[in-house]
Amino acid sequence: MNPDGHARPPAIDAALVRRLVRAQFPQWADLPVRPVAHDGWDNRTFHLGDTMTVRLPSAAGYAAQVDKEHTWLPRLAPHLPLPIPVPLAKGVPAEGYPFPWSVRAWIDGETASAERIGDPVVFATDLAAFLTALRRVDPTGGPAAGRHNFFRGGPPDTYDAETRETIDALKDRIPADTATEIWETALRARWQGSPVWFHGDVATGNLLVEDGRLTAVIDFGTSGVGDPACDVAIAWKLPTAESRQAFREALAVDPAMWARARGWALWKALITLRAERDHERAGDDGAARLAAERRTLQMILSEYARPD
Questions:
Q1: Which spans in 25-119 are helix H?
Q2: Are 110 and 127 contacting, i.e. CB atoms less than 8 angstroms apart?
Q3: 201-237 pLDDT, tens per residue?
Q4: Contact (Cβ atoms closer than 8 angstroms) between residue 254 and residue 227
């Protein structure tokens, strides 16, 4: 039992997935279930046979994303130049698991990394083309910034207090004055545009590649309609300055959006660095994540000091 007297939810593992599938989708009950090679934080994902996956929110804060993706992914897909997840079925809470969950078609590909990207400039322009197409989809009725997507698409000042507190907590490890200046520049760069569709979490783990080319975009849990600056934050994770500039030009990013995007990238790098430090996470994944965010922070600081 939890301290509040409620029963703890069961561990999200293959055994739970088998029980859920057997009870709710018996046509797939005989298919093998196994974890995917690289899982995420917000959801736990498992192979269901060779052509499907089961995706379960890991906490209550992510549960609303299931209905959103089942509603909107089929509407977005026809307008986009690359594959995105295809919902096949939606499960309901059962077996002690308290949230809705989903079955989706498997998409081939490997998560993007510097080593797997063939030509960084081509990758950057392909990604920009995808995001441009996404922005052109009719936003009518789309979900605005809110708790369902942790306020992506809204102004970065949603995270003002957290960012300033994190800068102060890391001041012995980062140039705090410069970080504060970058953040305040982002806050001043107010968005004046009309709402458009955005992905909300354009990160290397959500970009799939094959033979060095971008082939699919996954995980639309934080998607919505609003300011797309949060999607531009990926620029500081692109492998080269040339690819970052190509991405910016292909998306026609104006200075104000670039400043807001830099703020989003700074916020994410800082909170990740602080979490890694505070929790002293061990293991290869934690070390790799820490190194990646250090590189991102250094790229942000360097680009701000000497813009491309």
A1: 64-76
A2: no
A3: 999 999 999 999 999 999 999 999 999 999 999 999 9
A4: no
- Say yes or no to pLDDT of 8 above 70: no
272 touches 293 (CB < 8 A): yes
Q: Which residue ranges does the chain devote to CATH 3.30.200.20?
A: 14-105
Residue 23 tokens, joined = 């009870």
- Cα–Cα–Cα angle for 93, 94, 97, rounded to 5 degrees: 70
109: left (phi over 0), alpha (psi -120 to 50) or beta: left
Return the percentage of the chain with pLDDT > 90, whole number: 87
**CATH ID of 110-305, from 3.30.1380.10, 3.90.1200.10, 1.25.40.10, 3.40.50.620:** 3.90.1200.10
Q: Residue type at 291?
A: A
* Residue labelled with tokens 């990604």: 127
Task: Answer for the pair 82, 218: CB distance below 8 angstroms, yes or no.
Answer: no
Per-residue confidence (pLDDT) for residue 1, from 0 to 100: 38
Q: Which fold has domain 14-105?
A: Phosphorylase Kinase; domain 1 (3.30.200)
pLDDT for the residue 279: 60
- Name the DSSP letter for residue 37: S
Amino acid 287: pLDDT: 74
Average pLDDT over every residue of 145-169: 96
Strands (E), 21-82: 33-35, 43-48, 52-57
